[in-house]
């Protein structure tokens, strides 16, 4: 990762994120029947703050939390990317209501691979939510069920999302600008 100096320009405020997380949790509640447990699957590591806020908005629901870590390797000479599972779920999802929680959909390779993998385990319902979507970057046909914000093709950090493992602790989403 580059050592070039950069500044971070705020793109989405903490207040806007909180309001959107509240909206999204209402949509999730409408989708999953009351009284049925929802297994939220956070994709490590970028989704950890988003999933923490989402589960608290779902405080009146029966919720379980699990995590999965996937890593995508790009190769500019090939049209496809390999997605590897670095850490699998601890629990079984067969016959269960599952919501996969991601930070950003970029090319779409990670989520489409994860959904393919998890759907083979025969969940009762499998839905996806991503805080951010960069539709202009898409390389595979993938659409999350719910998106927090559509953003342009910019490198962003904050609210769990990193640049070289830094800036995950910023309470807002900011754009990285090299100086
Ligand atoms: P995809 O497989 O290309 O959709 O990759 C999605 C993953 O790439 C996200 O979960 C992030 O980890 C990473 N990513 C994509 N865009 C950004 C960004 O702007 N900032 C930080 N990480 C990003």
UniProtKB/TrEMBL annotation:
Record localization: Cytoplasm
Enzyme class name: transferase
Catalytic activity line of the entry: IMP + diphosphate = hypoxanthine + 5-phospho-alpha-D-ribose 1-diphosphate; GMP + diphosphate = guanine + 5-phospho-alpha-D-ribose 1-diphosphate
Record key words, sorted: Cytoplasm, Glycosyltransferase, Magnesium, Metal-binding, Nucleotide-binding, Purine salvage, Transferase
CDD domains: PRTases_typeI (cd06223)
Residue ranges annotated for the Phosphoribosyltransferase domain, each copy included: 15-163
EC number: 2.4.2.8
Involved pathway(s): Purine metabolism; IMP biosynthesis via salvage pathway; IMP from hypoxanthine: step 1/1
InterPro entries: HGPRT (IPR050408), Hxn_phspho_trans (IPR005904), PRTase-like (IPR029057), PRTase_dom (IPR000836)
Gene Ontology CC terms, in alphabetical order: cytosol
Cross-referenced Gene3D superfamilies: 3.40.50.2020
UniProt-listed Pfam families: Pribosyltran
Top-rank taxon, per record: Bacteria
Named cofactor requirement(s): Mg(2+)
Any one GO BP annotation for this protein: guanine salvage
NCBIfam families registered for this protein in UniProt: HGPRTase (TIGR01203)
Protein name, UniProt field: Hypoxanthine phosphoribosyltransferase
Biological classification of the source: Bacteria, Pseudomonadati, Pseudomonadota, Alphaproteobacteria, Rhodobacterales
């Amino acid at each position: 990762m580059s050592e070039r100096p950069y500044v971070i320009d705020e793109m989405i405020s903490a207040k806007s994120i909180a309001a959107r997380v509240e909206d999204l949790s209402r949509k999730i509640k409408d989708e999953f029947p009351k009284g049925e447990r929802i297994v939220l699957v956070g994709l490590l590591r970028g989704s950890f703050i988003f999933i923490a806020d989402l589960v608290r908005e779902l405080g009146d629901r029966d919720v379980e939390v699990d995590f999965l870590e996937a890593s995508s390797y790009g190769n500019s000479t090939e049209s496809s990317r390999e997605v590897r599972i670095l850490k699998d779920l601890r629990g079984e999802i067969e016959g269960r209501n599952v919501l996969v929680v991601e930070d950003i959909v970029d090319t779409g390779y990670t989520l489409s691979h994860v959904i393919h993998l998890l759907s083979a385990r025969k969940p009762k319902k499998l839905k996806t939510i991503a805080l951010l979507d960069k539709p202009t970057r898409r390389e595979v046909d993938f659409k999350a069920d719910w998106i927090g914000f559509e953003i342009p093709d910019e490198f962003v950090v904050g609210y769990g999302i990193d640049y070289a493992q830094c800036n995950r602790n910023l309470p807002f989403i900011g754009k990285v600008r090299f100086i």
